Each structure stands twice: as structure tokens, then as C-alpha cells.
Amino acid sequence: MSDLKFEIRAETSDDQELIENLHARAFGPGRFTRTAYRLREGVSPVTSLCHTGWLDGALVASIRLTRVKIENSVGLLLGPIVVDPEFASQGFGLKLVNEAVEASCKDGFSWIILVGDAPYYEKAGFEKAAPGTIKFPGPVDPDRVMVLALQEGGLTGVEGLLSPVRDE
Predict the structure, then answer these.
(1) CB atoms near residue 28 (< 10 Å)
(2) Residue 157 to residue 145: CA distance in whole angstroms
(3) How far apart are the C-alpha atoms of 106 and 151, rounded to whole Å?
(4) Which of 100, 109, 33, 125 is CA-nearest to residue 68?
(5) Using CA atoms, how far apart are residues 135 and 111, in angstroms rounded to an integer?
(6) For the segment 1-19, what is each residue's pLDDT rounded down to a tens digit?
(7) Range of weakest confidence among 22-26, 36-40, 46-50, 132-136
(8) DSSP category for residue 146
(9) Which domains does the chain have, with CATH numbers?
């Protein structure tokens, strides 16, 4: 595998079908019932922050971020992030997360939130949200709510109900 070249590219409209097929293989139909998925319904991801991962010309990973808000503070919801199960645990997902964090910071966002495994996302600087500070509009395991301040004080005073920022 070390001879294969992993390349991160900006997501394009030509990638949509490949990405949807990858989501279906990795997550199955149950993905649509999760609260994080429901938050993204009818909301376009931030195009400039969506990336794909290619291994010798084949799509093996994808990441998207969507605008969300907590009270008057607008930030990002990371996800979905997906890696082809055949290429799991090779660092491709973490490379996409790090790329997304860097791009989100450059774009001036203050914070990112996600629902995921702490040991994995801590590698990219995320930490567990303080208990009870961020509420989702559906069931979410509070131990899996992770946050990252992208700017100094980016999470100061950010607490309450998470909601999507609807497309205008």
C-alpha cells in the first residue's frame, strides 16, 4: 500500500454519485435516521470545505462540512466523513479532517462540532464538549459530542440548541 498515492482534492459535482455510493457502502441506509444527518437535510454543505480523497485515481474518502448555529454563533458541523471500508485505518480520514480544519480556520469560522469517537478526533485537536452545553434537536450520545475552537475564544459563550443554517 505504501506505493499508492493519496491525493486530496476539492469536491466537484462530478463526484456526487461516487460519494453517495461510498456513503451507502460504508454507512448503509440507517445513516438517514441519525440526528446529524437530519440536521443536514435540505442544507447545502460549504462547497469550499468539501474534499475528496483519491488513491491512485479511485475515490476512497470524502468529507463535508455544513453551516450550523447555536443561538447567534455560526459554526460548522463536520460530516459526514467517510472512508471506503477496504481502506479504513490507514490515516486517510484523519488527513481529510486535518485539511478541513485548516480550510475552515482560513475561511474565518470560529468553531466546528461533530458527533464521533473521542480517541480518533482528539488526534485533530477536538475535545469533548462540556456536558449539557450543546443540545442537538434529536438523540445524540453526549459523550460523542466533540468541539474545536478555530479562533481564540471561538467557543466562548457558545451553548444551547444546535440548528442548521438554511440555504437562502
Answers:
(1) 9
(2) 17
(3) 10
(4) 109
(5) 15
(6) 456 789 999 999 888 888 8
(7) 36-40
(8) E
(9) 6-164 (3.40.630.30)
